[in-house]
Amino acid sequence: MMDKAHILIVSQYFYPEQFRINDICSELVKRGHHVTVLTGIPNYPQGKFYDGYGFFRKTREKYNGADVIRLPLLPRGSGSIMMALNYLSFVVSGFFWSLFTSLDADYVFIYEVSPMTQALPGVWYAKRKKIPSIIYVTDLWPENVEIVGGVHNRYILHMLGKMVDYIYARCNKIFVSSNSFVDAINGRGVPLQKLKFWPQYAEEFYRPLPRENVDIPEIPADGTFNIIFAGNIGLAQGLDILPKTAKILKDRSIDVRFNIVGDGRFKEALIKMVDEDSVSEYFNFVEKQPAERIPEFMSVCDATLISLSSNEIFKMTLPAKLPSCFACGMPVLVCADGEIQDVVRDADAGFSCNAGDHWGFADIIEKVSGLPCMELHVIGQNARRYFEDHFEKHKLLDDLESEFVKVGNRNV
After folding, report:
1. Which of 99-113, 150-164, 207-221, 243-257 has the lowest mean pLDDT?
2. Rounded-to-5 percentages of helix, strand, coil across the chain
């Protein structure tokens, strides 16, 4: 059992941006801890500051009992230069904050989705205060920069690798969101005993809902087999497969609908592709919804989609979307490579094909859309059961608290 403590959470992204750290923060407060969040000005994924926020507006807030400190940073904008400046500005602001803050925390928890640079203020603060720190790695650097970001300059990658090694060396424990990350980070010389697989969980509002109790006018109840994708619509999601898949299904007279719920940089391009391929009747684009409403949208659909582009990083990734889909008791259709296929297969919770394989994906949809409702229900139950065994929130948070105690004892 962990004594009540003051935990500093460092995350460049935080509410109203939709990341799982929001719930982790809230749950730690519920468990009696004093939580302070060091974050930036919300601007993801649109690339501009959210309404009501700015350099001098809402720099201090409360969120579900936690104190929120917002550091000044430049918004992401729409190009690689602005994104780099966005990353750098958080580090610069965080450096001066870590140097001069009077805040006294007992532990640091760094929530790392790209960029890894955001960990630096947490590392510096922990070093200055001589307190233990845990980093949760959900995006692998510098591999992510090279493979996903397309940066191939060896000098830049070398410098980023040095930064990553610096961060790993100065954190007491490294949590990772997939088993494949354990091997990758161990390959950098980090000892295995310092690494721990800690999968992402789904918030409690992700749960099965009876279809008859939900009214979602955005998704027509006309007997069409409804597949839902909910989340960020970016290049990484590999959704360019869908218009090609829809053309094949149209030729086969398979009646399905792709319900795309969300926003992102690739959305307009995807809509254009759908129009150019003359498959608009296979698509239903719905505006971004609050995360709490996504289970309602899922409940009126027949299956959910998880898609990723093809690259070596995504082969090692377990997307945050997977526990959410499993928690809602939905059959999962995966168009991605690597570890996620293994999990879906082990759970007997859906069907998988390789990233970019629109022919294989069309075959899966033809198969699943013809299954009896009872069989789909069983597949959904399998997903929920696997979630409860492997991705349940309270079990994982108990584990996090126990690790805080362990690193604290070693730090004495």
Report:
1. 207-221
2. 45, 15, 40
Find where tokens 């296979």 sit. Answer: 282
Cα angle, residue 379 at apex, residues 374 and 385 outer, rounded to 5°:
125
pLDDT by residue (tens digit) across 309-345? 998 888 998 988 999 999 999 999 999 999 999 999 9
Helices 358-369 + 241-251 axis angle, to 10: 50
Residue 109 forms beta bridges with which residues? 9, 134
C-alpha 18: how far from chain center: 9
Residue 96: how many CB atoms within 10 A of its CB?
11
3-state secondary structure (DSSP) of residue 271: helix
Determine the pLDDT at residue 411: 65
8 A C-beta contact, residue 321 and residue 302: no
**Which of these, 90, 55, 103, 91, lies nearest to 166 by C-alpha position?**
91
- 149 to 83, 145, 178, 340: CA distances (angstroms): 11, 5, 20, 21
One-letter-per-residue 3-state SS of 73-117: CCCCCCCHHHHHHHHHHHHHHHHHHHHHCCCCCCEEEEEECCCHH
Output the six-digit token pair for 193: 């005993």
Residue-by-residue DSSP string for 296-356: HHHHTSSEEEEE--SSHHHHT---THHHHHHHTT--EEEE--THHHHHHHHHT-EEEE-TT
Token readout for 131 is 């307190």
